[in-house]
């Protein structure tokens, strides 16, 4: 399960990410994230607190600044291109909060169209008529986010 979100996040995004991580670990999901601070750190901490496995796909070519809650650290050295690796690695993508990097992850996930994309908080995308962009599943809570992935009954 890929979880994306900003490195500089709100307290609400951090709480949501912590809970999403915990809930995913309780369901036996491997959490894939960017591996640094903010939402990435919170989802990793939540998953690890429940005994889960967390894979960090790092933008840097080394492990410097990697979150200590990661189970597996993958330094890529590809910079922001790692966003593509993150969203392609999960059976679903949960996006928590909003930032330019997070928006790129959401766009890549939607463009691939391979996995469900669930958004919890953050920026809302509108089309030319001002209507919500179709296809993004909007969650109201961490529990709802997992439900909207369609991976658990």
From TrEMBL:
InterPro entries: CHP00725 (IPR005268), LDcluster4 (IPR041164), LOG_family_nucleotidases (IPR052341)
Protein name as annotated: Lysine decarboxylase
Pfam families the UniProt entry points to: LDcluster4 (PF18306)
